[in-house]
Amino acid sequence: MNAQVINCRAAVLWSPGTPLTIENITVDPPQEGEVRVRMVSAGLCASDGHLVWGWDTDLILDLEGNPIVMGHEGAGVVESVGPGVTSVAPGDHVIPMWMPECEKCDLCSHPKTNLCLSGDIVSAMYHKNKETRMKINGKPLLSKAGTGTFSEYSVIRETHVAKINPSADLKTVCIIGCAVGGGYGSAVNIARVHPGAKCAVWGLGAVGLSALLGCKQSGAHTIIGIDINADKESVAKEFGCNEFIIPKTLDEPIESYLQKMGGIDYAFDCIGNQQVLDSAYKSLTPWGVLTVLGLGPRGNGVNAKVADLVMGRTVTGGLFGNQKPRKTNQEMVDKYLSGSLPIDGLITHRIRLDEINEGFDNLKAGKTVRTVIEF
Ligand SMILES: [Zn+2]
Ligand SMILES: [Zn+2]
């Protein structure tokens, strides 16, 4: 066990709605049940952006005035482990998991959910007894989702790491930990797209493109990608979309257009704004399934009519594709290595840690698919 405090750099958010600052921080040794990870890469996800941009979503965190190391998508190497850690050892390659999986609680053994009773997204910002392992000038630094991947080193609970095949490129597989796992899983595990189906995906960032890939690999016949940015068309086609639509270029509401095609069997909302939720719901066939992935402004919802529900429509959703996170990360890395999960095209930008604010600006402007920090 390595008992040294590590000094390193991290991107810190001092308060929601302000730019991140690159700070010199300290990272304490891991304690019981904890793992210290040297981060190799980290992806920029919109749910970090919501906090950086100060958006009020249903999952906004109350930081209680504390600064926080952001980032919940990453990949790295275990540097040291605390007492009692058995699933990983120094040198192992890992993907941090923003959802815990203790493998001991009633929910971890429940086949219908991937939630875990060992912690939630708020308690994950701290370690035991509200301590933090990361500090700045001795002041506690919270850790986003318990993973804090925008740091050269992070202390993460063993329940929040998945050991992966060491031959996978750590600079690429980081995106499996949120975007790919969540988007692809929503198609194959939540919606369970059937062969020959008609699918439509709103919002073609890394999550939406991963959902397209899941639809394609499930054997969907018609896969429609919907975005406001014309630049997304080529990458959408690469990921399986056979029709690309920019709604404002139609001379009718998109739901009317899609209903004239006979309706959509599986709609995916990867945006969360109210107009998209309404359009996606109204585009469904009577037996259609709307899967909600996007985190929009607080209070948004789906206006599901009883008359539609009794006819057979379904509205659903889930975190990380409602898949057990450890096994899913491991299996998706293996699929990537075998060539059956072609995700390289999702990474459109690679940056240094100190370019992170520009990365979030470009994400907000819809100019990027996934931007990955290389440490
Ligand atoms: Zn994410
Ligand atoms: Zn559990």
TrEMBL record:
SMART domains attached to this UniProt entry: PKS_ER
A biological-process GO annotation: formaldehyde catabolic process
Record keywords: Metal-binding, NAD, Oxidoreductase, Zinc
InterPro entries listed in its UniProt record: ADH-like_C, ADH-like_N, ADH_Zn_CS, ER, GroES-like_sf, NAD(P)-bd_dom_sf
Cofactor(s) required for function per UniProt: Zn(2+)
SUPFAM superfamilies: GroES-like, NAD(P)-binding Rossmann-fold domains
GO molecular function list: S-(hydroxymethyl)glutathione dehydrogenase [NAD(P)+] activity; zinc ion binding
Transmembrane segment boundaries: none
Stored PROSITE patterns: ADH_ZINC
An annotated GO cellular component: cytosol
Positions of the Enoyl reductase (ER) domain: 17-373
Pfam families per record: ADH_N, ADH_zinc_N
The keyword Transmembrane helix is annotated on this UniProt entry: no
Domain of life assignment: Eukaryota
Protein family membership: Belongs to the zinc-containing alcohol dehydrogenase family.
Record-given protein name: Enoyl reductase (ER) domain-containing protein
Species of origin: Medioppia subpectinata
